[in-house]
TrEMBL record:
InterPro entries: Retrotran_Ty1/copia-like, RNaseH-like_sf
Organism annotation: Olpidium bornovanus
PANTHER family documented for this protein: TRANSPOSASE, PUTATIVE-RELATED (PTHR42648), TRANSPOSON-ENCODED PROTEIN WITH RIBONUCLEASE H-LIKE AND RETROVIRUS ZINC FINGER-LIKE DOMAINS (PTHR42648:SF28)
Lineage: superkingdom: Eukaryota
Protein name per Swiss-Prot or TrEMBL: Integrase catalytic domain-containing protein
Length: 164
């Protein structure tokens, strides 16, 4: 089973390919195994009109001792901000929200109008029906898992790859 992108790139640059089957890449297979979200109508939002947040984890302890990520996504320009935290506690999530709110209030000179979150519910429905932040987490987790599996990197480095 060869990798399509590898074949196309080799043909594009005139590189010689080895005869027979190309090696199977476990990391690439993990990255490509996903379902597409359901189509929804798009709408243009004003800055800070709508913010979504979600928590992801429980991962193995990172170098900094973190096990969870808490992400915010602002819908007008879609910048994603992720905070790493050692526990799923309310106080750390509230502290992260205060930092996020102050930073974006300074940037846009506006207040957050609507803040969506799932009250800590995990996988309450299919992945295609979940919000944009859960799809963002899924995408980043796939990237991180493919990097860790493809390069035989220790799992405690997950946060370092998530940050990049």
């Amino acid at each position: 089973m060869g990798l399509t992108n590898f074949r196309k790139t080799a043909e594009q640059f005139g590189l010689a390919l080895p005869k027979g089957e190309l090696a199977f890449c476990e990391g690439c297979a993990l990255r490509n195994a996903k379902k597409e979200p359901f189509l929804t109508p798009t709408r243009k939002y004003a800055p800070l009109e709508r913010v979504n947040s979600d928590i992801a984890g429980r991962f193995v302890f990172s170098l900094d001792g973190d096990k969870y990520t808490f992400s915010y996504l602002e819908h007008s320009s879609r910048p994603a901000v992720t905070y790493f935290q050692p526990s799923k506690g309310f106080n750390t999530a509230l502290d992260n929200f205060e930092v996020y709110r102050a930073c974006f209030k300074r940037r846009y000179n506006r207040k957050i109008l609507v803040h969506h979150f799932d009250h800590g519910g995990d996988d309450h429905c299919h992945l295609q029906q979940n919000g944009v932040v859960e799809r963002l987490h899924y995408t980043i987790e796939c990237w991180v898992c493919s990097i860790l599996a493809g390069n035989q990197v220790p799992p405690f480095l997950w946060a370092e790859f998530w940050r990049t």
